[in-house]
Amino acid sequence: MNEEKLYSLxxxxxxxxxxxxxxxxxxxxxxxxxxxxxxxxxxxxxxxxWQVKEAGANMLRGGAFKPRTSPYAFQGLxxxxxxxxxxxxxxTGLPVVTEVIDxxxxxxxxxxxxxxxxxxxxxxxxSLIKEVGKVGKxxxxxxxxxxxxxxxxxxxxxxxxxxxxxxxxxxxxxRTFETHTRNTLDLSMVPALKEVSHxxxxxxxxxxxGRLNLIExxxxxxxxxxxxxxxxxxxxxPEEALSDKEQAFTPQQxxxxxxxxxxxxxxxxxxxAAGAC
Length: 277
Ligand code: PEP
Ligand code: MN
Hints:
Helix 1 runs parallel beside helix 2 and helix 8 (about 210-225) packs parallel to helix 9. The strands form two sheets. This protein has an eight-stranded parallel barrel, surrounded by six helices. Strands 1-2 form a two-stranded antiparallel sheet. The radius of gyration is 17 Å and the shape is globular. It is an alpha/beta fold. It has helices at about 40-55, 80-90, 105-110, 125-135, 150-160, 190-195, 205-210, 210-225, 250-275; strands at about 20, 25, 30-35, 60, 95-100, 115-120, 140, 165-170, 200-205, 230-235. Helix content is about 40%, strand content about 15%. The structure holds phosphoenolpyruvate and manganese (II) ion (MN).
């Protein structure tokens, strides 16, 4: 990696990046993003939004454009999904993150979102990331499923090079020979990225494991590794979810996890403060 030129690396940026979204300071406050894989209906989205807010989430997720493996699988509600997301945001006050999959959509989708997500399948879609970079809204950049840290940081760099410094890196697991889990969640990326880059790093244990029983332990492990936040998929009725139902937490499961996450985060902060004296 040509480190000299990468603004996403620390030498050029002695300060860690802190991104203000509403009243959250991402990179300083803990970011807890939760919500369904896909926006399915107004009732579903508003119900989940209130449930995750109640449990302590400070950002809402929901995909209106879904990059699915099969062309016959649910592709998302598009504009009507974004309108629903906007309603959920206005009712609950939670800022929203949603995925953009087409460069032609970047600008108008940004009117409905506080943060734009680039999904794993599009991490190296350079025309998309450049377009999203131009829009100026913070970008949540998921790691490509076969990408190295260097490739990932270079993609962040494309966004920074458009004059947008507000990039959040999201580890969501990579493809390995292991088939028990949906992906192999590479938690070593959390301290590794923190060492070389000033950008905030969050972890998605839902896509990272694809298994309900592994989401909480891996989420807690990510907090112990020092991440700046988590993204978790939650559905009010997981069996009926139109996408990723195998990995959807119930609101109760999410609330139980969130309580442990906040406790562990406090403990980690106390340890860091004690170490600093
Ligand atoms: C998502 O967050 O909805 C998603 C599709 O995740 P990923 O891009 O990590 O597969
Ligand atoms: Mn999903």
